[in-house]
Each structure stands twice: as C-alpha cells, then as structure tokens.
Amino acid sequence: MLALFNLLNAGTTMLLEVAAVVLVVAALLRASWLSWVRRNAQPILFILLLASTAGSLIYEYAFHFPPCDMCWYQRIFIYSSMILLARALMLKKNVLGEVLTLLFFGLAFSLYHNVMDIFGLSSLSFCEGGPSGSLCLVRYVYEFGYITIPIMSLTVLVLSIIVVFIARNPQGGFGKH
C-alpha cells in the first residue's frame, strides 16, 4: 500500500511540476485561458493545499512517518494557507495577498530543507529530531530518482505562488503592471 501511495504522490508531484512550467509559459505568452485561473485561483489553491495537507497527514498517521522539524515549519504555512482559503471561500473574500505571504515563508523553509536533503548537508541542519524524533535528512520517499517529501512540499509551494502571481495580475504575465 505504501509503495502505491508513494507512486501516486510522486506521479502527482511530476504533474504539478509540469503544470507549474505550463502556467509560467502561459503567463509569459499572456494566454487567454489564464483568465479562468485568475477567476478560480482561491478554489484551485484550496484544493491543492488541502491535498497537500491530506497527504502529509496520511504519511504521518497511516504510514507512521514522523515529520521532522523542517517539515513542521512548512506545514505551519501550508495548513494556515489552506484554512485561510477555506474561510475566504465561505465568506467570498479575497485573501491572496495574505496567502502569498504565508506561502513565501513556507517556501523559504522548503528551499532550506531541500538544500540540506539534496546535498546531504547535515551541518546546515538544526534538526536534531525535535518533538517528533525524526531527523530532517531521513528519506522516507525516493521515487523517480529525485522525488522526496521535501520535493513534494517545494512543488506545492512553488505552484501555489505561481497561481497567486497569475491571479493578482489581470493583464496577464507576472506581477502588477
């Protein structure tokens, strides 16, 4: 069951990476279909972050992979963004600016975690097992030669930030004109 779950998550991660590239290219080309992404950015982000939250909790509680400290820091920002988006969808409010701030903090931790993981730099780690007892450099998942849990988190955060940038620019492309 774990092998199947890992493959599904790794495959989904690869699809999300392709989606990120497609969105960046479409934004640079000012593709007309991005208006749909702009109109639906909050529900898209909510679903993406809800799936990420569910995946992390399944790994922790169904497969007994304790999250390391760096994973916890990333979770704080992913979970908070998801909850903020859920509330915003119920109240029909735009919270993309607030969510973007949370996502950037999560991205900072994710980049640091991935640098440690990819280069095996335990000297950079302040992760001593923490409350969960898990070290940051333990690889519970390694699929397709590069997909790990930190890569999954990085992918979700980068894609989410791309969606927010697209949504916040009504003229197309990135950023405000």
Task: Give descriptors for this structure.
single chain; 177 residues; mainly alpha; 68% helix; 0% strand
Number of distinct helices: 6
Mean pLDDT rating: 91
Helix/strand/pairing category: mainly alpha
Q: Could you give a short account of the major beta sheet?
A: none
Number of strands: 0
Contiguous low-pLDDT stretches (5 residues minimum) are none
Q: How big is the Rg?
A: 17 Å
Taken from the alpha-carbon principal axes, the silhouette is: globular
Task: Estimate the strand proportion.
Answer: under 5%
| Quaternary assembly | single chain
Task: Outline the structure in words.
The protein is globular, with a radius of gyration of 17 Å. α1 packs parallel to α6, α3 runs antiparallel to α4 and α5 runs antiparallel to α6. The relative contact order is 0.19. The protein is an all-alpha fold.
Topology record:
Layout: H1 2-28, H2 34-39, H3 41-61, H4 69-91, H5 96-119, H6 149-167
Helix pairs in contact: 1-6, 3-4, 3-6, 4-5, 5-6
Short description:
This protein is mainly alpha-helical and 177 residues long.
